[in-house]
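User: Hey, my collaborator sent me this sequence without any context and asked if I could get a structure. I don't really work with proteins. Can you help?
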Amino acid sequence: MTGGQRLSGRSAIITGAATGIGAAIAERFVAEGAVVTIADLNGAKAELAADRLRGGGATVRAVEADVTNRGAIAAMIAGAVDEYGALDVLVNNVGVARETPFETMSDDDWTFQIDVTLSSTFRCVQAAVDHLARSTHGGRVINIGSVNGLYPFGHEAYSAAKAGLVNLTQNLALRYGAKGIRVNLVAPGPIRTDAWTERTAVDPTLLDRLASLTALGTIGEPDDVAAACAFLASDDAQWITGAVLPVDGGLGGGSLAMMRARQLAATDDGSAG
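Assistant: No problem. I've predicted the 3D structure and written it out in structure-token form, which is a compact way to encode the shape of the chain:
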């Protein structure tokens, strides 16, 4: 891990931070000098993640928080402000994708994924905005989107929610810029988390195939997303708001495998272009 102390003196809340990308963001933020609230639906896992960081000398709180519940969100934010005196950075990392095929998806399936992935950010920002506006460092909101919100990669409900996050991010950036609050979105591509590695148990070549679709030929790591978030939370990004930052190894720029297949087809039929 690299980084200085760009977030020294800042208080940050990261939702869904017990494992995976959220945990990596928390680790990077404390390495950059922030005091952090790790919020997660699984309180026991949140406490374990906090304990690991405290072992390195970090100042970290762990809270059990259901971001579909306004009362839980209010308590999460009030606790951070009471403990640290301010709230400077809010990272909305929670999202859920169910494997239900579109044809058999129920209203409950659809609503649940939209609620957790999109509406939770609405609730969290709404509850935090007054505190963020009082930040002496300038408030920061970082929403964790997905390449699914930018391109048609399936998981229709989850993808629609992530696409909604893009527009919400841009609207909030415009609405709250005058209050000194910057709102940006990071859109990860395939990242090596438990959700992906579990799938390799039944499809061992899955990650290799995904890697072949990126310009860099690799799968991303949680630290890649964390580094982007640390940048956006820092003063290095002080004139950036309403931005969508893909962290996808070039996946959104096109598929190298598709390009090669097209070139091969052009050679086979004697055509070009």
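In plain terms: The first helix runs from residue 20 to 31. You can pass these tokens on to your collaborator as they are.
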